[in-house]
TrEMBL record:
Species whose genome carries this gene: Amedibacillus hominis
Location of the RDD domain: 21-191
Protein's UniProt keywords contain NAD: no
Subcellular localization: Cell membrane
Record keywords: Cell membrane, Membrane, Transmembrane, Transmembrane helix
Ranges that cross the membrane: 24-49, 73-93, 123-145, 157-177
Record membrane topology: Multi-pass membrane protein
Domain of life according to the entry: Bacteria
Keyword Transport: no
Descriptive protein name: RDD family protein
Length: 207
């Protein structure tokens, strides 16, 4: 118990001004729009290759590999990951600094722990390593790379990776509910936090 208590005390307990409800609604928006963005190239390629719209809803990397071969599966998976990177990394880097569409709709943004802008390295660590890979059950793109890795190794790792990511995601959920800073695992990994947009911009006129 002392180990867990010591770990708990080492976490960031500073107050966060972004309500959990806002983060939840932002996640729902980003999950929906991000999923559409991620699956768009895969579905378009599937229709182009097969002309089969009836099974399009269930298409994934492994389905494409089984029906059309590994090469087309890797192509579809790679394009899906690139589209996901556009949504989760490029948009908050270049279009709405620090904000995905969901965060923008809810009025908060990602910044570094020292209140400076989230740069490319920070977003890659947070969104790709933290969310997509380690917390690998939060977004649709996680399932894409799980399937691509399974295909490459000729092992079905989808379930194992999904449940491992889910465990980390549950830990993150506990952190956001029980710790004042509301920083999740990927925030600690990337040294980021979320702040109210208007308040942050008011305090940082030059940003």
């Amino acid at each position: 118990m002392n180990i867990f208590f010591n770990l708990y005390m080492k976490l960031d307990h500073s107050e966060c001004n972004v309500a959990n409800g806002k983060r939840l609604f932002a996640y729902i928006i980003d999950w929906f729009l991000g999923s559409l963005c991620t699956l768009l190239p895969m579905c378009l390629l599937w229709m182009m290759w097969t002309k089969d719209m009836e099974t399009m809803a269930g298409v994934n990397v492994l389905v494409i590999a089984g029906r059309l071969g590994d090469g087309k599966a890797y192509l579809a998976g790679t394009l899906s990951i690139l589209f996901a990177l556009f949504y989760y990394v490029y948009i908050p880097l270049k279009i709405y600094p620090g904000q995905t569409p969901g965060k923008r709709a809810m009025g908060f943004k990602i910044v570094k722990k020292d209140d400076s802008k989230a740069d490319l390295k920070t977003l890659l660590i947070r969104e790709v390593i933290g969310v997509m890979i380690i917390e690998g059950s939060l977004y649709t793109v996680s399932g894409v790379w799980h399937s691509m890795l399974s295909l490459a190794l000729n092992l079905n790792l989808v379930g194992i990776l999904m449940y491992a990511g889910l465990a980390v995601g549950i830990l993150s959920g506990f952190m956001i509910l029980k710790i004042n800073s509301r920083r999740m695992f990927h925030d600690y990994l990337a040294k980021t936090k979320v702040v109210e947009y208007e308040e942050y911009m008011g305090e940082n006129k030059s940003i």
